[in-house]
Specification:
heterodimer, A: mainly alpha, 12 helices, 71% helix, globular, B: alpha/beta, Rossmann fold, Alpha-Beta Plaits, 2 domains, four-stranded antiparallel β-sheet
């Protein structure tokens, strides 16, 4: 710190080359911010590691009973993507904190001073987050596939991307994760508190949605199928084996229709977040 | 150039900033001086669009802050030394800000050198002392080489060496023709750094003038006299028109409306021995206290036991 008192020639020793703020530059800046936090990498590692772990555990355990079940009883992608239920929680946690930590630390004031029209900063962060969630999903599915494959023969199952359902589940996992991350990010942006944001997302997945689907009253169960995770997880649900994420089974939603419903929730939440960001003091 | 026009901010029924109108001009250091709670920080946040004014408007370099296409190139702002994620290093924090404006790594390294942060560039900001946090905030403000600088309490938490450095830096930036607007509740610091002052109290502008004018306006200077014959000298002095004498001790007089030579002449004429004769100039501190006397939000009342200030609790002990 001895350089401090050296005479200050000028703040602009070499004139800084300043260019207008563009969306691309904001996305690049958000990537710098996300990658420069250790917690990002820890959380991503946690989100991904569930995939090979659970894929291997569940594949090996069904390999023991496959002889009784008969050939083709098990749908490979369901076991390969078993880690989704836990992986999504880690990723949702990251998605909440990526925005709420800015409010807790005061970083948001630096962020918005550089992007005073505000909304581009919100969308830039979302873009980076969705890209990272897609990437984590792809890595998760790939490592899950690799980890489960030693038991494929014994379990009498395969992963065949030529089959529509197999392809849908394998591709659906990154897409579902990206949408869930966007949903959690929306909650974080609205609530501006890590604790409240994470509690809301966990409450939705573990309390609200199960409550709706398990209570023995039909209208409620009908509503339950349209709640975010129940609807969205249709995309990664096998028609014969059920979902690895949601409890609700009796749905009339098609896989892509269900995913569309999840995207609808995301859109509504992000519109609320955008309106609030424009209105509130930072 | 910063121009505020009727800037007002209300939280519910509480008016924090009340119709402030002022202009901060380039080429000099303008101090924004006022007691805690006078609305300085809120005003500065409104200048850069972080808080929405309830009414009124403010422009920087001719337009509202949010309408600048490259705001960091127009305005550098230090609002809060802790406007940094604690898990991110100083270098990464500045790099992220620089990236939004396409500013290169060379400039990032340059401002870190300028603020003395090079040796701690990779240290996470959460481990920074308040002083280092201030340096990082100033580095961020300088990043875009802006024409206008807005700094909220920049010397807060700095060691004496750092205070001197900030003072030299700000005076240098103003000398280059930039607009420098800094807030403080420390008039001693302002007296050394600022050319012009906007003094605020309870959300209102109570003075907007060059530092010298504000000091001059603080009232007539006094002459302090120490003499064993105080009552007799006082009686002789008050015969002159416009002269007032206050006894401030057994042998001590404060004379206003006169000058040291005049007092000496009167004393010599009456054969009165003087032990001390000194002109007392009003300081910026006096001027500031006079200006904001009615506008202090959080005042300590030594005699008022209902106000739990440090001074009252001390008095009760």
């Amino acid at each position: 710190m001895t350089t401090t008192t050296a005479p200050v020639p000028s703040a602009a020793a070499a004139r800084a080359d300043v260019r207008p703020v563009t969306f691309g530059r904001l996305v690049a800046a958000e990537w710098v911010k996300l990658r420069s936090l250790r917690s990002t990498w820890w959380t991503l590692a946690l989100a991904v590691v569930f995939f090979p772990l659970l894929a291997a555990m569940r594949s090996s355990s069904i390999a023991q009973v496959a002889a009784d079940a008969g050939p083709g009883a098990f749908v490979g992608p369901v076991y390969v993507t078993s880690g989704l239920a836990l992986g999504q929680l880690a990723l949702c946690g990251l998605a909440v904190v990526v925005i709420t930590a800015e409010y807790r630390s005061g970083q948001i004031r630096s962020t918005l001073a550089a992007a005073p029209t505000r909304l581009p900063a919100l969308w830039a962060k979302l873009t980076v987050l969705v890209a990272v969630a897609l990437g984590a999903g792809i890595v998760g599915v790939a490592t899950g596939w690799a980890a489960a494959s030693p038991w494929f023969d014994a379990a009498g199952m395969t992963v065949d991307l030529g089959q529509a359902e197999h392809l849908r589940i394998m591709l659906g996992v990154p897409l579902y994760l990206a949408a869930m991350a966007a949903l959690a990010y929306g909650f974080g942006a609205v609530l501006r508190s890590s604790a409240a944001g994470i509690a809301t997302v966990l409450g939705l997945v573990f309390v609200v949605e199960p409550a709706f689907s398990y209570l023995p009253w039909e209208p409620l169960q009908k509503v339950a199928t349209y709640l975010p995770t129940a609807a969205g997880s249709r995309l990664v649900t096998s028609d014969t084996m059920g979902s690895v994420v949601a409890g609700s089974q009796s749905t009339t939603l098609t896989p892509w229709g269900g995913y569309g419903v999840l995207l609808g929730w995301v859109a509504v939440l992000l519109v609320v977040a955008a309106v609030l960001l424009r209105r509130r003091d930072a | 150039m910063i121009e505020a026009d009727g800037l007002t901010k209300r939280y519910g029924t509480r008016t924090v900033v009340d119709a402030m109108t002022f202009a901060v001009r380039p080429g000099k250091v303008t101090g924004f001086l006022g007691p805690n709670g006078a609305g300085k920080s809120t005003t500065m946040r409104m200048v850069v669009g972080l808080d929405r004014p309830t009414s009124g408007a403010v422009t920087v370099n001719g337009r509202p802050y949010a309408q600048h296409r490259a705001p960091l190139g127009e305005v550098g702002v230090l609002l809060d030394a802790k406007a940094v994620h604690p898990g991110r290093s100083a270098h990464e924090h500045l790099l992220a800000l620089a990236t939004t404006h396409g500013i290169g790594r060379r400039r990032v390294d340059e401002v870190m050198g300028l603020t003395g942060l090079t040796s701690v560039a990779r240290v996470r900001a959460g481990r920074f002392s308040l002083g280092m946090g201030q340096r990082l905030g100033i580095a961020a403000a300088l990043l875009g080489d802006p024409r206008t600088l807005i700094l909220d309490e920049p010397v807060n938490g700095l060691d004496p060496e750092g205070v001197l450095w900030v003072r030299t830096l700000l005076r240098g930036l103003a000398a280059e023709g930039r607009t420098v607007f800094l807030s403080s509740h420390l008039m001693s610091e302002m007296a050394l750094t600022a050319d012009h002052l906007v003094v605020v109290g309870r959300g209102r502008v109570v003075a907007d003038a060059p530092v010298a004018d504000i000091v001059a306006r603080a009232g007539t200077s006094a002459v302090r006299v120490r003499t064993p014959d105080a009552p007799r000298l006082a009686a002789l002095l008050v015969r002159h028109a416009g002269v007032e004498v206050r006894s401030t001790g057994a042998d001590l007089l404060d004379v206003t409306g006169s000058t040291a030579p005049a007092v000496a002449a009167v004393a010599a004429g009456a054969g009165i021995v003087l032990h001390e004769l000194a002109p007392v100039h009003a300081s910026l501190e006096d001027a500031y206290l006079q200006l904001t006397a009615d506008d202090v939000e959080y005042r300590s009342h030594p005699a008022d036991a209902t106000t739990p200030t440090r001074r009252t609790s001390g008095a009760r002990r």
